[in-house]
Design goal:
This protein has helices at 25-40, 76-79, 106-122, 137-145, 162-167; strands spanning 5-9, 45-51, 60-69, 87-97, 129-133, 149-150, 157-161. With 175 residues, the protein is of the alpha+beta class. The chain has one domain: Aminopeptidase (3-Layer(aba) Sandwich). It has a seven-stranded mixed β-sheet, with helices on both faces. The protein starts with a strand and ends in an 8-residue tail after the last helix. The structure holds coenzyme A.
Length: 175
Protein backbone atom coordinates (compact mmCIF):
# COMPACT_ATOMS: atom_id res chain seq x y z
CA UNK A 1 0.00 0.00 0.00
CA UNK A 2 1.21 3.51 -0.85
CA UNK A 3 1.74 6.29 1.70
CA UNK A 4 1.95 9.98 0.84
CA UNK A 5 3.14 10.85 -2.66
CA UNK A 6 5.35 13.74 -3.63
CA UNK A 7 6.15 14.99 -7.08
CA UNK A 8 9.63 16.53 -7.13
CA UNK A 9 12.07 17.93 -9.69
CA UNK A 10 14.56 15.17 -10.53
CA UNK A 11 17.53 15.44 -8.16
CA UNK A 12 20.22 12.79 -8.77
CA UNK A 13 21.56 13.34 -5.23
CA UNK A 14 18.25 12.02 -3.85
CA UNK A 15 16.55 9.94 -6.53
CA UNK A 16 18.07 6.59 -7.54
CA UNK A 17 17.80 6.55 -11.30
CA UNK A 18 19.66 3.26 -11.78
CA UNK A 19 16.84 1.28 -10.10
CA UNK A 20 14.12 2.64 -12.34
CA UNK A 21 12.62 0.15 -14.81
CA UNK A 22 9.39 0.89 -16.65
CA UNK A 23 9.85 -1.97 -19.11
CA UNK A 24 10.87 0.33 -21.96
CA UNK A 25 14.69 0.56 -22.28
CA UNK A 26 14.63 3.92 -24.08
CA UNK A 27 12.59 5.53 -21.28
CA UNK A 28 14.81 3.99 -18.58
CA UNK A 29 17.93 5.13 -20.43
CA UNK A 30 16.65 8.65 -20.87
CA UNK A 31 16.06 9.03 -17.14
CA UNK A 32 19.39 7.44 -16.26
CA UNK A 33 21.62 9.20 -18.78
CA UNK A 34 20.04 12.33 -20.23
CA UNK A 35 17.29 13.77 -18.03
CA UNK A 36 19.63 15.62 -15.68
CA UNK A 37 21.87 16.93 -18.49
CA UNK A 38 18.81 18.13 -20.40
CA UNK A 39 17.53 19.94 -17.31
CA UNK A 40 20.87 21.76 -16.92
CA UNK A 41 20.91 22.71 -20.61
CA UNK A 42 17.34 23.95 -20.73
CA UNK A 43 16.13 21.18 -23.05
CA UNK A 44 13.51 19.64 -20.77
CA UNK A 45 12.49 19.51 -17.11
CA UNK A 46 12.11 16.11 -15.47
CA UNK A 47 9.86 15.49 -12.47
CA UNK A 48 9.63 12.30 -10.46
CA UNK A 49 6.89 10.82 -8.31
CA UNK A 50 8.07 9.30 -5.03
CA UNK A 51 6.64 8.27 -1.70
CA UNK A 52 7.60 10.72 1.07
CA UNK A 53 8.96 7.95 3.24
CA UNK A 54 11.21 6.56 0.47
CA UNK A 55 12.12 9.51 -1.77
CA UNK A 56 15.05 7.67 -3.34
CA UNK A 57 12.73 5.18 -5.08
CA UNK A 58 11.42 6.69 -8.30
CA UNK A 59 7.86 5.47 -8.94
CA UNK A 60 7.51 7.33 -12.22
CA UNK A 61 8.66 10.38 -14.10
CA UNK A 62 7.70 12.80 -16.82
CA UNK A 63 9.40 15.59 -18.73
CA UNK A 64 8.08 18.92 -19.97
CA UNK A 65 9.47 21.43 -22.40
CA UNK A 66 8.30 24.39 -24.47
CA UNK A 67 7.16 23.70 -28.03
CA UNK A 68 4.87 24.92 -30.78
CA UNK A 69 2.33 23.36 -33.14
CA UNK A 70 1.55 24.44 -36.70
CA UNK A 71 -1.96 25.86 -36.61
CA UNK A 72 -2.89 23.77 -39.67
CA UNK A 73 -2.56 20.58 -37.60
CA UNK A 74 -5.33 21.52 -35.19
CA UNK A 75 -8.98 20.64 -35.39
CA UNK A 76 -10.77 22.98 -37.82
CA UNK A 77 -13.16 24.38 -35.17
CA UNK A 78 -10.20 25.35 -33.01
CA UNK A 79 -8.18 26.68 -35.92
CA UNK A 80 -10.87 29.25 -36.76
CA UNK A 81 -10.25 31.02 -33.47
CA UNK A 82 -6.46 31.02 -33.74
CA UNK A 83 -3.85 33.02 -35.64
CA UNK A 84 -2.36 31.40 -38.76
CA UNK A 85 1.13 31.13 -37.32
CA UNK A 86 2.37 28.31 -35.03
CA UNK A 87 0.69 28.25 -31.64
CA UNK A 88 2.72 27.92 -28.44
CA UNK A 89 2.37 24.80 -26.34
CA UNK A 90 4.10 22.53 -23.87
CA UNK A 91 5.43 19.10 -24.74
CA UNK A 92 5.14 16.07 -22.52
CA UNK A 93 8.31 14.43 -23.81
CA UNK A 94 8.21 11.31 -21.70
CA UNK A 95 5.99 9.73 -19.07
CA UNK A 96 6.61 6.35 -17.45
CA UNK A 97 5.90 4.39 -14.28
CA UNK A 98 8.00 1.60 -12.88
CA UNK A 99 6.83 -1.75 -14.24
CA UNK A 100 6.24 -3.31 -10.83
CA UNK A 101 3.80 -0.50 -9.89
CA UNK A 102 1.88 -0.09 -13.15
CA UNK A 103 -1.90 -0.31 -13.01
CA UNK A 104 -2.12 1.34 -9.58
CA UNK A 105 -3.03 4.85 -10.66
CA UNK A 106 0.48 6.31 -10.84
CA UNK A 107 0.36 7.08 -14.56
CA UNK A 108 -2.88 9.00 -14.06
CA UNK A 109 -1.35 10.85 -11.11
CA UNK A 110 1.78 11.77 -13.09
CA UNK A 111 -0.31 13.03 -15.97
CA UNK A 112 -2.38 15.13 -13.56
CA UNK A 113 0.82 16.62 -12.10
CA UNK A 114 2.13 17.45 -15.58
CA UNK A 115 -1.14 19.14 -16.57
CA UNK A 116 -1.18 21.10 -13.30
CA UNK A 117 2.34 22.35 -13.98
CA UNK A 118 1.31 23.44 -17.46
CA UNK A 119 -1.71 25.30 -16.09
CA UNK A 120 0.47 27.10 -13.54
CA UNK A 121 3.12 27.98 -16.14
CA UNK A 122 0.43 29.10 -18.57
CA UNK A 123 -0.72 31.76 -16.12
CA UNK A 124 2.65 33.46 -16.79
CA UNK A 125 3.66 32.36 -20.29
CA UNK A 126 0.91 31.65 -22.79
CA UNK A 127 0.49 28.14 -24.16
CA UNK A 128 -2.46 26.74 -26.06
CA UNK A 129 -2.06 23.02 -25.57
CA UNK A 130 -0.06 20.15 -24.16
CA UNK A 131 1.32 17.86 -26.86
CA UNK A 132 2.68 14.35 -26.58
CA UNK A 133 4.27 11.78 -28.91
CA UNK A 134 2.60 8.55 -27.83
CA UNK A 135 5.18 5.84 -28.40
CA UNK A 136 2.68 3.22 -29.59
CA UNK A 137 -1.04 2.41 -29.79
CA UNK A 138 -1.09 1.34 -26.17
CA UNK A 139 0.25 4.70 -24.99
CA UNK A 140 -2.14 6.41 -27.41
CA UNK A 141 -5.09 4.64 -25.75
CA UNK A 142 -3.91 5.93 -22.36
CA UNK A 143 -3.73 9.56 -23.56
CA UNK A 144 -7.01 9.29 -25.48
CA UNK A 145 -8.70 8.33 -22.23
CA UNK A 146 -7.75 11.75 -20.85
CA UNK A 147 -8.94 13.87 -23.75
CA UNK A 148 -5.83 14.02 -25.98
CA UNK A 149 -6.56 13.86 -29.70
CA UNK A 150 -4.25 13.30 -32.67
CA UNK A 151 -2.90 16.25 -34.65
CA UNK A 152 -4.35 16.24 -38.17
CA UNK A 153 -2.50 13.76 -40.36
CA UNK A 154 -0.65 12.28 -37.38
CA UNK A 155 -1.41 9.02 -35.66
CA UNK A 156 0.65 9.17 -32.50
CA UNK A 157 1.32 12.88 -31.98
CA UNK A 158 -1.51 14.14 -29.82
CA UNK A 159 -2.61 17.31 -28.06
CA UNK A 160 -4.85 18.45 -25.25
CA UNK A 161 -6.08 22.07 -25.36
CA UNK A 162 -5.20 23.49 -21.95
CA UNK A 163 -8.31 25.66 -21.67
CA UNK A 164 -10.32 22.44 -21.84
CA UNK A 165 -8.05 20.88 -19.23
CA UNK A 166 -9.20 23.50 -16.73
CA UNK A 167 -12.72 22.12 -16.57
CA UNK A 168 -12.79 18.83 -18.45
CA UNK A 169 -14.00 15.85 -16.45
CA UNK A 170 -11.83 13.33 -18.28
CA UNK A 171 -8.65 15.11 -17.18
CA UNK A 172 -7.33 13.54 -13.98
CA UNK A 173 -7.20 15.78 -10.91
CA UNK A 174 -3.82 15.90 -9.15
CA UNK A 175 -3.69 14.86 -5.52
C1 LIG B 1 1.29 4.13 -19.84
C2 LIG B 1 1.59 4.17 -18.34
C3 LIG B 1 2.28 5.48 -17.99
C4 LIG B 1 0.27 4.06 -17.56
O1 LIG B 1 0.57 4.11 -16.18
P1 LIG B 1 -0.18 3.19 -15.12
O2 LIG B 1 0.27 3.58 -13.77
O3 LIG B 1 -0.01 1.77 -15.50
O4 LIG B 1 -1.70 3.59 -15.37
P2 LIG B 1 -2.78 3.93 -14.25
O5 LIG B 1 -2.83 2.80 -13.27
O6 LIG B 1 -2.56 5.29 -13.70
O7 LIG B 1 -4.10 3.96 -15.13
C5 LIG B 1 -5.02 5.02 -15.04
C6 LIG B 1 -6.23 4.65 -15.87
O8 LIG B 1 -5.81 4.50 -17.23
C7 LIG B 1 -6.12 3.20 -17.69
N1 LIG B 1 -5.00 2.79 -18.53
C8 LIG B 1 -3.75 2.48 -18.17
N2 LIG B 1 -3.01 2.16 -19.24
C9 LIG B 1 -3.85 2.27 -20.30
C10 LIG B 1 -3.70 2.05 -21.69
N3 LIG B 1 -2.55 1.69 -22.23
N4 LIG B 1 -4.77 2.28 -22.48
C11 LIG B 1 -5.96 2.67 -21.98
N5 LIG B 1 -6.18 2.89 -20.67
C12 LIG B 1 -5.12 2.67 -19.86
C13 LIG B 1 -6.24 2.34 -16.44
O9 LIG B 1 -7.09 1.24 -16.65
C14 LIG B 1 -6.82 3.30 -15.44
O10 LIG B 1 -8.22 3.40 -15.59
P3 LIG B 1 -9.17 3.63 -14.31
O11 LIG B 1 -8.80 4.99 -13.75
O12 LIG B 1 -10.55 3.57 -14.86
O13 LIG B 1 -8.85 2.52 -13.36
C15 LIG B 1 2.46 2.95 -17.90
O14 LIG B 1 1.84 1.76 -18.30
C16 LIG B 1 3.88 2.98 -18.41
O15 LIG B 1 4.75 3.59 -17.80
N6 LIG B 1 4.14 2.29 -19.54
C17 LIG B 1 5.49 2.18 -20.08
C18 LIG B 1 5.95 3.50 -20.65
C19 LIG B 1 4.96 4.10 -21.63
O16 LIG B 1 4.42 3.41 -22.49
N7 LIG B 1 4.76 5.42 -21.51
C20 LIG B 1 3.93 6.17 -22.40
C21 LIG B 1 4.83 7.23 -22.96
S1 LIG B 1 4.64 7.57 -24.62
Amino acid sequence: MFGVFEEQPLDPTIHKRADFDCGVPALNGYLQRYADQHRKRGISSAYVLVESKAPERILGYYTLSAAEIACSLLDERERRKLPRYPVPCFRLGRLACRADEQGRGLGKRLLACAIDRCLIARAHVAAYALTVDAKDDNAKAFYTRYGFKPLLGHVLTMYLPLAAALNQESVPAAG
